[in-house]
Design brief:
328 residues, mainly beta, Neuraminidase, 2 domains, 8-stranded mixed sheet, 5-stranded mixed sheet, 46% strand
């Protein structure tokens, strides 16, 4: 691994607890989580396990007969850096860049390729909508905290989660100042809507425990959802057309659920092999894209088969944290 061993140990121990940690010394360190990655005095470390097979095996790119022309994928890097633009399956090579962004992305469909626009959440006043492939057209803001996740429902409402305080802000019709919803989370990581307009989010509680929560469509407060299996580290929350999915960053697995009341029943498990740390995933048409913070790349997997990557994006990467796909 390219990181200093002591910092890697700190990151791994911190990730296991899910709360900020500092190394014992006479000088306090400024530590902050970014997904499963941990920043110590500005130096990024990662809790990802070392990749024991640095050269992933993947098959040549095969055009997806369901995929329309002029579609684009985005691998969004660390906050304050850039996002790479790709046009898979035409190519696996980066074709463009959006500068001065970072974090996570979302678009105006529950899964698949967004229609003409997408969003990148990069900061309190950098919640920006882009016209595909890269023209900024609107920017929203939140009052404070560290906005990170975003999701859109079928009516066009935009939900933005806050990494530092667990709040979720919902912008009706993706405009205005938004309505703040407190949650039981201390740190909100990812969110996503299902096909009924229910909003789900995950993260860690004040007790450093994973928790999945739901704001029912038309509801005024989030409620805790109990999963029938254990999730170790929060990952992407997304509807896949049949199930609510939650990714586990530590297990490198995506879980498919049916939700009834306040219980989520596991229906399927999809394993991602040779990935190190999919900080955000995006389910498209027959594939799922992974922003792999551990391997410093973007990976493409068959969905719902999972397994080994069918393609690895090549380009410029700087701690990939987010990914999304949209068509022009």
């Amino acid at each position: 691994m390219k990181y200093a061993p002591a910092l890697v140990v700190l990151a791994i121990c911190s990730a296991c607890g899910g709360a900020s940690a500092v190394a014992p010394s006479s000088t306090a360190l400024n530590g902050q989580y970014i997904g499963r990655t941990y920043a110590v005095d500005g130096m990024l470390t990662t809790a990802a396990r070392p990749n024991l097979n640095p050269l992933p095996r993947y098959v040549p790119i095969v055009p997806d007969r369901h995929k329309k022309s002029k579609t684009f994928e985005y691998i969004i890097n660390d906050y304050g850096t850039y996002a790479g633009i790709f046009d898979y399956p035409k190519s696996d090579k980066q074709i463009g860049t959006i500068n001065n962004v970072g974090g996570q992305g979302c678009t105006n469909v529950l899964y698949g390729y967004g229609k003409k626009t997408f969003w990148i959440v990069a900061g309190t006043d950098q919640i920006t909508e882009y016209k595909v492939p890269q023209k900024p057209i609107k920017t929203l803001s939140v009052a404070s905290g560290e906005p990170s996740s975003c999701a859109m429902d079928t009516s066009g409402d935009l939900a933005v989660g806050n990494l530092s305080n667990g709040q979720v802000v919902i912008f009706k019709n993706a405009s205005g100042s938004g309505t703040v919803f407190p949650t039981s989370l201390a740190r909100e990581y990812f969110d996503g809507y299902d096909n009924q307009g229910n909003l789900f989010a995950d993260g860690f509680t004040n007790g450093s425990q994973f928790e999945l929560i739901e704001l029912p469509n038309g509801g005024s407060a989030f409620q805790t959802i109990t999963t029938s299996n254990t999730i170790e580290f929060p990952g992407s929350v997304q509807w896949d057309g049949t199930y609510l999915t939650v990714f586990d960053q530590l297990a490198n697995a995506m879980y498919q659920y049916t939700v009834s009341g306040t219980k989520a029943k596991l229906k399927g498990t999809i394993s991602f092999k040779e990935s190190s740390d999919c900080a955000q995933t995006w389910i498209a048409t027959g594939v799922v894209f992974c922003a792999d913070a551990g391997n410093e790349n973007g990976a493409v997997f068959n969905y719902p088969a999972g397994g080994t990557p069918i393609a690895i994006f090549t380009g410029n990467f700087d701690l990939p944290l987010g990914t999304v796909a949209a068509e022009k």
